[in-house]
Specification:
alpha/beta; twelve-stranded mixed beta sheet; eight-stranded mixed beta sheet; 49 helices; 24% helix; globular
Length: 1989
């Protein structure tokens, strides 16, 4: 029952879903957020294109297995007696049939929907019922709750909870098990007449792939007809009646074609299956969101590989949506086949073995149609089936794009389908046709229709007619998976719809089929003959088509661009189609039907077969001015090598398609220049002072991006998913993958070499590395890449401690699925290599995708988490230079801005004269591809311009009339630039020709003309071919070497960047640019030959990205720069919104600037400089001041070389003679280098700052200086293009290169593209941003919103992730896992930034800092301080041999105890007096309480025996830590333990937290499992893999940073480790260390210090020792043999070292494990004689003096102690102490006669941990919890006084007071070592200036001799009964010595004074009594001071 799939709790945390839901509701008042629990409960169904089957299969597709056995009959429950059992009636006898209830008023409860049920016995009608919409799927087949809830619409009975029960009630009489998926068939709704009609089929998962209503799917995806039709193969013959429909009309995401076997019969391949075309139930296709993978029950027709149609790809040819007409998709459907005409296909389909419906009247295409009309008409299928075309079908093209648009615009998302009793309805057929006519009418004569525009018109009309309902019921189309919901917005203006044509108000009065023809005729009449309507007299589409063809042949449609055929007849559906008859439109549409690859093949074919020769001959003629070749011959003097272009040899060259030219052409020495460049350049005085190239410069913004990348990597490592363990890597290895372009490859190698990254990564000296060494790190993604990547992966698997980075540069280039790509195409390699399981599963491989156009990687099935995207930041915010850049990025948005400014010639423009000439020739040569025609014309223009500008063609003054103004300007500028510079620096002209064959022809042609004109040494002509290395002539190579000062004779330029300042024409070929960076000397970017057929955002922005440029920031002169300088125009007042993630500044949404481009401000936006960000980077007048080339050529003569730079209209100065005029483009205004938020688009970091000279002056915050208006400037030849000097030295620069560095290049575009790019959509963004982002993806729905202008880059990413779906050819289309909504790869990052912005430099720097960070992670800050207080004198006695392994107790007793404290952390405490020892402490200054002096540390690399904190989790540690995901989290139990101690008074309860895995260390009572004791080993026990001594580590505040992971330190040895924690920290420590035993201190110790922890550990250990002895005795063993030692270890001990004595080299230290140290100490034969052992603290200086020779010593021990709990039983740690407790304990231990031994051969390294610890106590007042600065003098007060009480333990206040004010308390003791203060039985720190003499009052204690010693004070702290008056009388005091008696309360203070008879020798005053500043309830301490009499 219910769904066949189970709902599963989503992995998303509840809080996150709740947060997203709340956020969505807050963000929009129109959004109804999805219920939180349905988000949690319902797993999003993952789409797939499986399961395409015929509808007839519905009845049995759910029955059992796929075998051929008959279905088991289903036994229905017999109906109750007396019930109605009639079909179509319920058991209550009420009629349920749709036909009966159609006009009835039905009550539908809220939340329910009317649904039509298909009854097997009633095929002609449906049964009506109401079903709770929660149990129905949405339009994607998702989110249906399990189960059923329905009501009977007949008798009104409610609350049916089971579909089985309900099916019985409505008498379905089924033979199979009732399932709602099979029988709930259609949504029902009321039409305009109020009649209940059948609506869209219910989209059940696994059923929506069948041929059903087209609507519900196309709303979801804009797939297009260029892809294979849906799975049609499984139709049963004869299952449909009706006319055929072209299958290509059905959008589908193509899957691999296979013959699908259904049941036991295979269906033959069909080209055109018959489809039922009547009624609202239109054919449907497999949606993007069908089920992903096999259903729970295997359906019969489901193929495990993929269910695809059996149509071979090569048989279909339909217009790709990539065409000019495309939004829907992009490449042609036939990617691998030959181009065959679809019309021909239609006629052949009648031979199919599948019976077809009788066709409508066929239409015969007239012969000689193309010859007669000189065009190939395009027929757009519309509504209704297209009649079959017969006859000359090869000359007619049929496209389904329009039909796809119609269908997708009628497919309402489910949320709109039901609106109470009156549902929101899609646009009617009539309305769609009328809107189509409106759209066609307003198109210009040269405009080509764009489906995107028409689709937006449909959406706008639909929204306006249902505005109120949409606003009320609007929901996001798909749950926005990350953060923001994008809702459908009503655009303010409609692109493409003229304002005077208002939309009929559909909601008030529906448009009828009878009104349609005359309304359409009325609209068409407004444009004359442009649109012809055939409607009134036409009875069928066939008749209309025949009429159209007749009119075409008769020439009656000469001025008509579109014929719209409308067929309306009463009682029939309206049918329509559109025939395109405009020559320009037909050509554009026909060429757009080619895929890019096919288009290039067609061009090659036309060139190789010689069909272009007639065109070339035609262009060669200059009319009255003669013939080009003859004119060139007249100019040729020396050269006899004539290679005529039109000769047969030339044709042969074309045929062979040579892609490279011989450098010999460039070497021909035939220049007529008397002074050749070589001669001039050799002169030393001809050096150019302006030229500089800096390759190594890294810009600040690149550093910022590198750090951003690093922080994302750290975030992955820090997340709880443990997908990246940075702590386990010690080095970085990387491989950079680039597209298969030799120049891009060499360019990346160049950047790698100049970055110094290999040196940072530990390679050999960078200088010694050869070119080949660098090339090993960069891989071209061609067939040779596999071996290199495989070895890289192999290396990753073998070197698990190396982090391997795969950098995938230009990542949008190859997104093809490996399963769909031909092996020889080179595509699909990325998918095959980077998406392989080996890469995905390797924990040490991280992939970084780098691209300027990330859209194709941001789909619903993306592998990259949105949290792992890094967007290039904006460099400017409100004109503040955030990164102190010396450059400004000038990208696409700035180019667009220059077209709007209007004050000067825009940087981006089109060439009208070229366009008109090309258009004329296109009409003359209709069979030639437009690329061939346009290339021929443009190259001819270049050749003529060269002839005109060279001045070497005599007698032809009118040559310039045969070229265009733009081309002439380009050529003239190229020729004159180098002549103005002494070093011949010039600029580059980029000529983009996508076809390699055309590019090679153009290169040969231009080279020949250059040679004949004798200009070989003036400029170079370079053919840029992806597959070949860069080759230039030797003359030019020598020139570049001289400029770059390169001595290497073998050096040749390998990249375009190295052609800096070389005058050249670069002909860049290839279907698309592959990441090549261009030099700063690029001045003209000629894109007039790029294709206008493929309108995707990526394609357009890629081409425009070639002109992206880093403009050099200039220092601004404060005053009028004078003549020769361009005026700077300030835009400082025009602010734009910033697009930083934190702030979405929308302050200026209305300003003219912010409305232009959002690009600029988008710090993280991708390409089009992310055309959707706001902030123009450019000031208005940024460019060449010249009239728009669109003006007539006749104005050219009045064009002058000087222009006024004022923004006001100008008068033209008198014309000058042409020969004196400078290239007009050189008169450019200074590009404003201070944009507000430069967009930082990103693409190739290649052209980064490295190529920018460093200006001498740099202003951190450059401000635009307002300048007086410049005067009209007249430029002579020498100052033709004045500009600001890059060095501000001279306003007149002689070097045009230096002038150009601060100006972006000019861009020339085809007129069609120019119009599209410069147009804005309703949101104010450029139109191209709303295009499909890439040809390999499709839109998820027509009902998507437009991109918003205020979107940040992150929001753009989320938009594309929600609204685009990858086609099956896309590598991410397979990234759909059942049951997961996010299938992100955890170690994948995406860096996006605009083209040429510097991404390569950023990621190379990232590799460097990542390597440094890994080394840094492998290092820790170790305290590295020399021991203090060593006297200069050395002791001559050697007690032990230097290499003695263990101490001898007898010898140790003879060694003097060293009372001096040497630990540097105690350099600010009181020295301990020892006779015969001076001290350096007298000079120690008093350290202020609030001054933190940083202690000296060293960075030390972690050894393999280090202890780690919680951030380390390598594979070996996982089980130890209890955090391995493969293991269940370790369970722990809490055990209480009662403990009594005399000093504690009452019995206290301790808690042990013991993990299950550690319970064997403890013994429990057999009865109740009560914890009895901790098991201790015997002294005689020994195991090489076991440590006997339990380790106790007291800790506070360091749950993350404490070094408790001892797995590596113990070298894997078994050990018992117990963390001692405070009660309030128990939970957090347990969370971070679930597998550690914890001893929880009692509540009373929550505020105690380290003394309390050590006290409790020691006393508990002795108590446990007694218990263990008792247990052993009970077991019959020896009691005294139990191991009595414990370890007290600090929580910052990180590594241990051992000293090896080497006779030759002296002592050397090596890292050893803690296991080694402990086993060595445990093995000491006389260890039981020692009370306390320890090791020294490490210092890089070793020991001081000769002490290093003594392997053992007696003295103070710290940090790491081995304590004998048995022998030290009577000496306790002072539980009240906060500071110096270890000094106090050691002194008392020694005085008790116990041996203390330090093993000097071992040392412990202590890590600097800045967080937590026992020393971090904050002294604060009781009044507030806010720490306040309280001075030490306020720590005490007089008893009973009104004083500010402190919320700090009394003992701590006392210790701190004594430490900081002892010089006042003991004035005679200050800096007086010979007269110390006598301290009885305790050590208290009185500050560094006071010396203490410790004595013990215990009998038989060991004390120093005090004979003759005069004390300057007496300190009695809690004096016990051992202190007697007689004991004190042994000591002598100075007169005026100070006494300080400390007690717990005032009464005990007085008792102590009386008992010790102190008043006899000491004088007390009433005012000398004090207490700590504690409230009474906090039990203050009291002390009394007095003076010695």
């Amino acid at each position: 029952m219910g769904n066949s799939y189970a709902g599963q709790l989503r992995t998303t945390r509840f809080e996150e879903v709740l947060h997203n839901s709340i956020e969505a509701s807050l963000r929009s008042n129109t959004v109804v957020p999805r219920p939180v629990f349905s988000q949690l409960y319902l797993e999003t169904e993952q789409p797939s294109a499986h399961d395409g089957r015929a509808e007839n299969e519905d009845e049995d597709d759910e029955d059992g297995s796929a075998s051929n056995s008959p279905p088991i009959p289903y036994q229905m429950k017999p109906p109750p007696e007396g019930c109605c059992t009639t079909d179509g009636f319920c058991q209550a006898g009420r009629d349920l049939r749709q036909s009966s209830l159609a006009s009835e008023t039905l009550e539908v409860p809220p939340g329910f929907m009317l649904v039509g049920i298909k009854s097997p016995s009633l095929s002609e009608t449906l049964l009506v019922c109401a079903v709770d919409r929660r149990f129905l799927p949405d339009e994607r087949g998702r989110n249906a709750l399990l189960g059923f809830s329905g009501n009977c619409m007949g008798c009104g009975e409610k609350g049916f909870r089971y579909f089985t029960e309900f099916s019985n009630h409505i008498n379905l009489k089924l033979s199979t098990q009732p399932k709602k998926q099979k029988h709930l068939k259609y949504h029902l709704y009321r039409n305009n007449q109020g009649v209940l009609v059948k609506g869209a089929p219910i989209c059940w998962r696994g059923h929506d792939g069948r041929m059903r209503q087209m609507g519900s799917i196309l709303a979801e995806n804009h797939v297009t007809s260029d892809e294979q039709p849906p799975n049609l193969a499984s139709h049963t013959p004869g299952s449909y009646t009706g006319s055929h429909v072209d299958p290509t009309a059905l959008p589908q995401i193509a899957d691999p074609p296979q013959t699908l076997t259904n049941g036991n019969h295979a269906v033959p391949s069909v080209t055109q299956p018959p489809l039922n075309q009547s009624g609202p139930g239109r054919p449907s296709v497999t949606g993007t969101h069908a089920n992903a993978g096999p259903p729970k029950k295997r359906h019969k027709g489901w193929s495990p590989e993929s269910a695809a149609n059996s149509l071979p790809e090569s048989t279909l040819k339909t217009p790709p949506s990539s065409s000019v007409l495309a939004t829907l998709s992009v490449s042609s459907a036939v990617t691998h086949g030959t181009r065959s005409e679809p019309a021909a296909l239609l006629s052949s389909s009648q031979h199919s073995s599948t019976p077809l419906a009788p066709p409508e009247l066929s239409v015969t295409v007239p012969d000689q149609l193309l010859h007669t009309c000189r065009l190939q008409p395009v027929v757009f299928k519309g509504h209704g089936p297209l009649p079959q075309l017969m006859g000359n079908v090869g000359e007619v093209l049929v496209s389904s794009l329009l039909q796809s648009c119609y269908l997708s615009s009628q497919a309402l998302p489910r949320v709109y389908q039901h609106y109470g009793p009156s549902p929101i309805q899609p646009l009617s057929t009539e309305m769609q046709i009328l809107l189509t006519v409106y759209y066609l009418v307003q198109l210009g004569p040269d405009q080509v229709p764009l489906i995107e525009d028409l689709e937006q018109i449909f959406m706008r009309s639909w929204r306006e007619s249902h505005l109120s309902e949409i606003r009320q019921y609007q929901q996001p189309q798909t749950p926005a998976s990350h953060g923001r919901h994008f809702v459908v917005e009503t655009p303010s203006s409609l692109p493409g719809l003229p304002q005077h044509l208002s939309l009929p108000p559909q909601s008030q009065q529906p448009l009828t089929s009878s009104q349609l023809p005359w309304l359409a005729q009325l609209a068409a009449s407004s444009c004359g003959e442009g649109v012809v309507l055939l409607g009134d007299q036409i009875k069928s589409l066939a008749q209309g088509l025949q009429e159209t063809f007749s009119r075409l042949m008769e020439g009656r449609l000469e001025n008509t661009n579109y014929v719209v055929i409308i067929v309306t007849a009463p009682g029939q559906e309206t049918q329509s189609c559109v025939v395109v008859t405009g020559k320009h439109q037909c050509r554009a549409l026909a060429e757009s039907m080619y895929s890019p690859t096919e288009g290039l093949k067609e061009i090659n074919h036309q060139l190789s077969t010689g069909v272009a020769q007639e065109l070339i001959h035609f262009c060669n003629s200059l009319g009255q001015d003669g013939d080009m070749d003859s004119l060139l011959d007249s100019a040729t003097v020396d050269s006899n090598e004539l290679s005529p272009l039109l000769s047969s040899q030339e044709s042969a060259e074309d045929k062979s398609l040579k892609s490279s030219h011989s450098p010999k052409d460039s070497l021909t020495q035939s220049s007529k220049d008397s002074n050749s460049p070589k001669e001039r350049a050799s002169s030393p005085k001809d050096a150019c002072s302006e030229y500089s190239v800096e390759w190594r410069e890294v810009r600040p913004i690149q550093l910022a991006v590198a750090r951003k990348l690093l922080s994302h990597v750290c975030a992955i490592a820090d997340s709880s998913t443990q997908n990246l363990d940075l702590g386990s890597f010690d080095r970085v290895s990387f491989l950079i993958l680039v597209p298969p372009s030799e120049v891009t490859f060499q360019q990346t190698v160049l950047h790698l070499r100049s970055s110094g990254v290999l040196q940072e990564l530990g390679s050999l000296d960078q200088e010694s590395l050869s070119q080949g060494e660098f090339e090993r790190y960069v891989v071209k993604m061609d067939q040779s890449a596999q071996a290199q990547i495989d070895s890289f992966i192999q290396e990753a698997y073998s070197n698990t401690y190396t982090l391997h980075i795969l950098v995938h540069d230009h990542a949008h280039w190859d997104v093809s699925s490996s399963s769909y790509s031909a092996s020889d195409s080179g595509l699909g390699l990325v998918d095959k290599l980077l998406n392989s399981r080996r890469v995905r599963d390797a924990p040490n491989i991280l992939i970084l995708h780098v691209t300027s156009f990330p859209f194709t990687l941001q789909t619903q099935y993306t592998r990259i988490s949105p949290y792992n995207e890094i967007h290039w930041p904006s460099a400017f915010s409100n004109d503040v230079d955030l990164y102190h850049e010396r450059t400004r990025y000038f990208g696409v948005s700035e180019l667009l801005e220059s077209t709007r400014s209007g004050s000067s010639l825009p940087l981006m423009r089109h060439d009208s004269s070229f366009e008109s000439m090309a258009s004329t020739l296109e009409e003359r040569f209709p069979k030639l591809h437009s690329a061939v025609i346009r290339t021929t014309v443009l190259i001819q223009h270049y050749c003529i311009a060269l002839m005109a500008a060279s001045g070497r063609i005599g007698g032809s003054p009118n040559l310039h009339k045969h070229t265009s103004v733009e081309t002439l300007e380009i050529v003239q500028s190229l020729l004159t630039a180098a002549q103005q510079c002494p070093a011949q620096h010039g600029h580059m002209v980029l000529l983009r020709i996508p076809s390699l064959a055309l590019a090679a022809w153009a290169h040969r042609r231009l080279t020949r003309v250059r040679r004949q004109l004798g200009l070989e040494e003036s400029f170079e002509i370079i053919l840029g071919n992806h597959n070949q290395a860069l080759t230039i002539g030797q003359t030019f190579t020598d020139q570049i070497k001289k400029w770059l000062q390169i001595e290497d004779n073998e050096w040749v330029p390998r990249t375009y960047l190295e052609l800096e300042a070389l005058p050249c024409i670069l002909i860049l070929s290839g279907a698309e640019p592959l990441g090549e960076s261009l030099p700063r000397s690029l001045k003209y970017c000629d894109l007039r030959l790029i294709s206008c057929s493929y309108l995707q955002r990526t394609t357009l922005e890629q081409e425009l990205g070639l002109a992206a440029y880093l403009v050099k920031e200039e220092s601004r002169p404060p005053h009028n720069p004078g003549p020769g300088s361009d005026q700077l125009e300030s835009d400082a007042d025009k602010l734009s919104s910033t697009d930083n993630e934190e702030e979405e500044g929308q302050e200026n949404a209305d300003s003219p600037l912010s409305s232009s481009q959002q690009l600029q401000s988008c710090p993280d936006t991708g390409a089009l400089d992310s055309l959707s960000t706001t902030s123009p980077n450019v000031q208005k007048g940024t460019v060449d001041a010249v009239q728009s080339p669109s003006q007539a050529q006749s104005q050219f003569k009045s064009q002058t070389s000087s222009q006024s730079f004022q923004a006001t209209p100008q008068t033209q100065p008198p014309a000058q003679s042409f020969s004196q005029t400078q290239p007009i483009s050189q008169l450019q205004t200074q590009p404003q280098v201070q944009s507000l938020n430069p967009p930082v688009p990103q693409t190739n970091p290649q052209q980064q700052a490295q190529t920018f000279p460093q200006p001498l002056s740099q202003t951190p915050n450059p401000q635009t200086q307002p300048l007086p208006p410049a005067h009209s400037l007249q430029h002579s030849k020498s100052t033709s293009s004045g500009s600001l000097s890059p060095r501000s030295s001279s306003p007149h620069l002689s070097c045009s290169w230096a002038r150009g560095v601060s100006r972006p290049p000019s861009v020339l575009l085809p007129r069609a593209l120019y119009d599209i790019i410069t147009a804005s959509d309703s949101s104010g963004l450029p139109r191209c941003t709303s295009f499909l982002p890439h040809m390999s993806v499709v839109w998820a729905s027509s009902f998507r919103p437009l991109l918003s202008k205020m979107m940040t880059c992150t929001e753009q990413s989320l938009y594309y992730r929600q609204w685009t779906v990858p086609r099956s050819l896309h590598m991410d289309s397979s990234n759909r896992t059942e049951g997961r909504s996010d299938n992100f790869h955890p170690r994948r990052l995406l860096l996006s930034g605009p083209p040429q912005v510097g991404k390569t430099g950023a990621y190379l720097h990232f590799l460097g800092i990542l390597s440094r960070m890994l080394i840094r992670l492998m290092e820790v800050d170790i305290y590295d301080e020399e021991d203090i207080n060593y006297t200069a004198q050395t002791e001559g006695v050697q007690y032990h041999l230097p290499n003695a392994p263990w101490p001898n107790p007898d010898i140790m007793r003879t060694m003097p105890f060293d009372y001096t404290i040497h630990d540097p952390k105690y350099d600010d405490i009181s020295a301990v007096y020892c006779p015969g020892h001076g001290t350096t402490a007298e000079g120690n200054p008093v350290r202020q309480e609030d001054v933190y002096l940083r202690r000296r540390t060293s960075r030390i690399k972690l050894s393999k025996y280090a202890a780690y904190n919680t951030y380390h989790h390598c594979e070996q540690c996982h089980q130890y830590l209890g955090i391995n995901p493969r293991y269940q989290m370790y369970e722990s139990t809490l055990h209480a333990f009662m403990f009594t101690h005399l000093l504690l008074g009452e019995e206290i309860q301790l808690y042990f937290i013991i993990p299950k895995s550690k319970e064997h260390y403890f013994s429990f009572s057999q009865s109740g499992g009560q914890l009895e004791s901790m098991r201790l080993p015997l002294t005689s026990d020994w195991s090489p893999d076991c440590i006997k001594t339990p380790i106790f580590t007291p800790t506070t505040g360091r749950h993350e940073h404490g070094l408790f992971n001892l797995y590596h330190a113990m070298d894997g040895a078994s050990h018992l480790h117990i963390l001692v924690v405070k009660e309030y920290e128990m939970a957090v420590y347990k969370k971070y260390w679930p597998n550690h035993i914890m001893l929880v201190l009692p509540t009373v110790f929550n505020g105690a210090g380290i003394g309390a922890a050590h006290f409790l550990i020691k006393e508990l250990s002795y108590h446990n020792l007694e218990l263990e002895r008792s247990r052993r005795l009970e077991g019959g063993g020896p009691a005294g043999d139990v191991w009595p030692f414990i370890i007290l270890s600090d929580d910052s001990c990180v590594m241990f070292n051992a000293v090896d004595l080497d006779a030759r080299n002296g002592p050397t230290e090596r890292a050893v494990s803690l296991k080694h140290v402990l086993q060595h100490m445990e093995a000491c034969p006389d260890l039981a004689h020692y009370g306390l052992c320890g090791i020294r603290k490490w210092s890089s200086r070793g020991f001081t003096g000769n002490r290093q020779r003594e392997p053992f010593s007696r003295g103070h021990l710290h940090d790491f102690l081995l304590l004998n709990a048995d022998r030290s039983q009577n000496i306790q740690y002072d539980q009240n102490r906060f500071t110096c407790h270890d000094v106090d304990f050691t002194l008392r231990l020694h005085s008790a006669g116990l041996l203390v031994c330090r093993f000097n051969s071992f040392s412990v390294m202590k890590k600097q941990v800045a967080i937590g610890g026992y020393r971090t106590f904050i002294i604060k007042t009781k009044m507030t919890d806010v720490p306040t600065s309280v001075g030490p003098s306020q720590y005490i007060c007089a008893p009973d006084s009104k004083h500010l009480f402190l919320a700090t333990p009394a003992q701590l206040l006392l210790e701190k007071y004594l430490q900081h004010t002892s010089q006042k308390l003991f004035p005679l003791s200050t800096r007086n070592y010979t007269h110390p203060v006598l301290s009885v039985d305790c050590y208290l720190n009185l500050g560094p200036e006071v010396t203490l003499c410790f004595v013990s009052s215990r009998p038989h204690s060991v004390n120093i001799s005090t004979t003759g010693l005069l004390f300057s004070g007496l300190l009695l702290c809690f004096a016990d009964s051992f202190v007697t008056p007689g004991f004190l009388k042994k000591f002598t005091f100075l007169k005026g010595a100070t006494l300080c008696v400390i007690s717990a309360d005032r009464s005990s203070l007085r008792q102590t004074v009386g008992r010790l008879e102190l008043e006899e020798e000491w004088r007390f005053r009433l005012s000398d009594e004090f207490q700590t500043a504690n409230a009474k309830e906090d039990r203050p301490l009291f002390f009394l001071t007095g003076k010695h009499i």
